[in-house]
Specification:
The chain is of the alpha/beta class. It contains 16 helices and 20 strands. Strands 1, 2, 3, 4, 5, 6, 17 and 18 form an eight-stranded mixed sheet that branches. It binds NADP nicotinamide-adenine-dinucleotide phosphate.
């Protein structure tokens, strides 16, 4: 009996979309409302939001400014929503995404509490079979993954976790009811963007917070403020300008990288410009000079500026020294921005532990033991990041032609074309997949481009009676080489321990995953391919002859 017919519940569709965050929601709008396709979005959570559904840790806030961190495909949608702050907090972004879901009646095509476990391409029928943890199955011509880049939590394998008598949480799987830190001794492992946001907020209520830092990190003040009525009105009056601005910059942000070089700017003036950028706050600190990410010498000027600021802010010289002993270029890893992060170490109830000097050896029933001390804790917070980019895709058992497994194709790293397709997996598209600008871009901008490109491609296929689109091993090899080449022109590729390279996950292949050439050239490449009838893909009219 065909597999599909043996299932308790089976549905046949034009497209299955996996994930109901920004990406899945917009893909649904593109395919259902613009192309009239039958679409089901399968979502593991019980609500929309993706990243913003799961990451409810204290202090969770967007690092992109609110007026640039949203959908821009519909000016009326933009005018109908009002952000309250310069950087929206997680609950506000989740409210926004629910507003979008309401406005476009998305929930009727989203099935919640549904975790996809496998997707198998049936060559004879030219259809994908998608199965869920509950044993449901779906067949569809297209499968589009909208699973996010940072959605597979990394809980490090530290011996003894199961023996811990207190409670522990990973920031990316935060309890919906929140966590009460009052009167508790809290240990937090990790000082990436997440830990840097969480520490100041946890410290406000915890009896004591001990931060376990392995690699010291830069951070620049976010300078979050409520939006003024005038700015809110400016947003409503300038929806087109905002959309255009975020499409004309390399990283999808509404600010441009200044066309001046740190190394050609006199030291005093350079200092003044860094000071100005520090006061302005936010990710645009990275845009102060155009050579910051290309020249180590130029980058050193920014790095030294931030290290000096850390030493000025943090009163205890020993703590300041550990925090400012940073071993990589500024923004060589994803640069965090913060609200009172370094200031938090001036509180009496906060301690920094240098676990590079004295590594964590075990979690004990009572807390965390390093090589030189044991720290008694009631709660452990893992702000330890994610199995980024490939993790969420490899968590699904995906098999293509001839039973080819995605996890085998990607054994040595994520081979793909444009971050959108993998050879041997026809009609499978990966929104913000490895090899696309994704995490190096303001995410909604990257997502809108991918979802629109995929929808245009499907429209073209349907108009031309094409059954399958797929890439080839040669195209993948060429694209992976391009991704490596563009990364090698920046300082990003010089940092050996970043998650961009998969280095945070033991055993993961070290391959630079995102496309660092910028959103503008990437969009041009994709548009050019579309304009030429997707000539760099293999388009096939091989129609199905028999059911699977
Ligand atoms: P992350 O950047 O990967 O940082 C993880 C931290 O945990 C690092 O400090 C890491 O140390 C530490 N760590 C991991 N395993 C450890 C171990 N076994 N022992 C000790 N320390 C360990 O993760 P993240 O902070 O969750 O951020 C991930 C990404 O999510 C960000 O880069 C950003 O793209 C995104 N994000 C965005 C926002 C935003 O926009 N608001 C907020 C949060 C996160 P090492 O550095 O030594 O490995």
């Amino acid at each position: 009996m065909p597999e599909a017919l043996s299932d308790k519940h089976h549905t046949d569709l034009d497209a299955v979309v996996i994930g109901a965050g920004f990406a899945g929601m917009y893909q649904l709008i593109c395919l259902r409302d613009r192309l009239g396709l039958s679409v089901k979005v399968l979502e593991a959570g019980d609500g929309v939001g993706g990243t913003w559904y799961w990451n409810r840790y204290p202090g969770a806030r967007c690092d992109s400014e609110s007026h640039a961190y949203w959908f821009t495909f519909d000016p009326e949608l933009m005018k109908g929503w009002e952000w309250s702050e310069r950087y929206p907090e997680q609950p506000e972004i989740l409210r926004y995404l629910n507003y979008v879901a309401d406005r476009y009646d998305l929930r009727r095509n989203i099935q919640f509490n549904t975790r996809v476990t496998s997707a198998r391409f049936d060559e004879a029928a030219n259809r994908w079979h998608v199965r869920t943890a509950d044993g449901e199955s779906f067949t569809a011509k297209f499968v589009i993954t909208a699973v996010g880049c940072l959605s597979t939590a990394n809980v490090p394998n530290i011996p003894g976790l199961e023996s811990f008598k207190g409670d522990w949480y990973h920031t990316g799987m935060w309890p919906h009811g929140g966590v009460d830190f009052r009167g508790k001794r809290v240990g937090m492992i990790g000082t990436g963007s997440t830990g840097i946001q969480a520490a100041p907020v946890i410290a406000e209520t915890a009896k004591h917070l001990t931060v376990f830092q392995r690699t010291a990190n830069y951070s620049v003040p976010a300078r979050n403020v409520p939006l003024t009525p005038e700015f809110k009105q400016w947003i409503k009056d300038n929806t087109h300008t905002i959309r255009t601005a975020t499409r004309e910059t390399l990283n999808g942000q509404p600010f441009r990288i200044e066309q001046r070089k740190a190394l050609e700017t006199p030291a005093e003036e350079r200092e003044r410009l860094y000071e100005e950028a520090w006061e302005r706050g936010g990710l645009q600190f990275r845009a102060t000079f155009e050579d910051m990410m290309a020249s180590k010498e130029a980058n050193d000027t920014a790095a030294e500026f931030v290290k000096k600021k850390i030493r000025q802010i943090v009163k205890d010289p020993k703590t300041a020294a550990i925090l400012s002993d940073i071993d990589h270029p500024y923004a060589g890893k994803r640069p965090p921005i913060d609200t009172d992060y370094f200031e938090t170490y001036n509180r009496d109830n906060v301690t920094l532990v240098d676990v590079k000097a004295a590594p964590i050896q075990a979690i004990t029933p009572n807390g965390i033991r390093t090589s030189d001390a044991e720290y008694e804790l009631d709660i452990i917070v893992f702000a330890t990041g994610f199995d980024a980019m490939t993790g969420p895709l490899l968590a699904i058992d995906i098999s293509g032609r001839d039973g080819l497994k995605l996890r085998d194709v990607w054994e040595a790293g994520p081979l793909n074309y444009l971050g959108l397709q993998v050879a041997g997996f026809p009609n499978l598209f990966t929104i913000t997949g490895p090899g696309s600008p994704s995490v190096l871009c303001n995410m909604p901008v990257a997502i809108e481009q991918h979802a629109e490109w995929i929808a245009d491609c499907i429209k073209y296929m349907n108009a031309h009676g094409i059954d399958t689109i797929e890439t080839t091993p040669e195209k993948m090899a060429g694209w992976v080489q391009t991704v490596n080449e563009v990364a090698s022109k920046t300082l990003l590729s010089t940092v050996q321990h970043s998650w961009y390279l998969g280095a945070n996950i033991p055993g993961k292949p070290r391959v630079f995953m995102p496309y660092a050439g910028g959103m503008v050239p990437y969009r041009e490449i994709c548009d050019d391919i579309a304009a030429k009838g997707y000539e760099s893909f293999v388009l096939s009219k091989a129609r199905a002859t028999a059911p699977a």
